[in-house]
């Protein structure tokens, strides 16, 4: 039972990250995780703090995969929080394994249905485009499909790219998730002020 609650918490995080339903996913994660710690029972706040910090670091690693250490530290903190709560390493691994298996299945289902990290960043990309005063207004006769450029910042999946000899920074959205700084990219689609790119 407890493992299923933990799994629902992880599913909530996955839904918040991969779909536009950020509030619903975050709510499910919060309620399920709170229920998990309630049923297990904990005498101090330390396990909950460690678990939460670990989960946040793992989410951070998803958006900034080049950082590396955040994911490792996050996993260690998450396992430590669960172990301090349960007090049994075997049950900790069982609950965590069950949760990971269930969440992996849900993630595969969401990806097959067209969801990706780009869904949660669309609003951020639109806001960046509207608030950027130094960038040119993107028009189809300026940036076109198959134009080649270079990522000036990491695309996570939103970021900035320059095209050809034009020094102007253009806000773009990667269709392939994270793309590292300095990577050559090619325009996949231009729609109004929105540019989507992929690796060359």
UniProtKB/TrEMBL annotation:
The chain crosses the membrane at residues 35-60, 67-86, 92-111. It is a multi-pass membrane protein. InterPro entries: Membrane_assoc_protease, NA-bd_OB-fold, NfeD-like_C, NfeD_membrane. Pfam families: NfeD, NfeD_membrane. One of its GO terms (molecular function) is peptidase activity. GO terms for cellular component: plasma membrane. Residues 3-109 form the NfeD integral membrane domain. Residues 145-199 form the NfeD-like C-terminal domain. Keywords: Hydrolase, Membrane, Protease, Transmembrane, Transmembrane helix. This is Membrane-bound serine protease (ClpP class).
